[in-house]
């Protein structure tokens, strides 16, 4: 069993559209373990750290405005290959390129309203989890389902 963790967020558009339970449910039903969950009103400072690689790009101001426009559901999920599999579940960055069955492919149309975020590497996951969660907000617990999910 793997203790790999990823940072998954439902962006303000996903919260406004009532997609929170569906997105949580997909990770739960897949078999991943929820170890952190909270509603966050993101500040511009937090977003600038989270999107450090994008802060100087032309699309950033509008994106930061949107990302701070309402609550975000911040989550930490744990399990085998959860970083890579989380990205597969989200779909391509642009919903127009996302396959049906993925979150963005099922719920999104425009790039700037792509509903969710997921860490793109184990290294980014560790950085993002530390940015969005205090250590005591992440709960280590044993799932009774593990033996029915992992061989
Ligand atoms: N984005 C945008 N306009 C662009 C490029 C990106 O609004 O021209 C947003 C988009 O919502 C994306 C986020 O910026 O999810 C971060 O971009 P990245 O390339 O890191 O994609 P992700 O890791 O979210 O799939």
UniProtKB/TrEMBL annotation:
UniProt binding sites for ATP: 11, 59, 87, 93, 104, 114
Q: InterPro entries recorded for this chain?
A: NDK-like_dom, NDK-like_dom_sf, Nucleoside_diP_kinase, Nucleoside_diP_kinase_AS
Looking at the UniProt entry, the stretches that span the membrane are: none
Q: What is its EC number?
A: 2.7.4.6
One of this protein's GO BP terms?
Answer: CTP biosynthetic process
Please give the cofactor(s) recorded in the UniProt entry for this protein.
Mg(2+)
Active site residues of this protein: 117 (pros-phosphohistidine intermediate)
List UniProt keywords, sorted A-Z: ATP-binding, Kinase, Nucleotide-binding, Transferase
Annotated Nucleoside diphosphate kinase-like domain ranges read 3-140
Q: Which family does it belong to?
A: Belongs to the NDK family.
The record, for HAMAP family, names: NDP_kinase (MF_00451)
In Swiss-Prot or TrEMBL terms, this protein is called: Nucleoside diphosphate kinase
Q: Which organism is it from?
A: Arxiozyma heterogenica
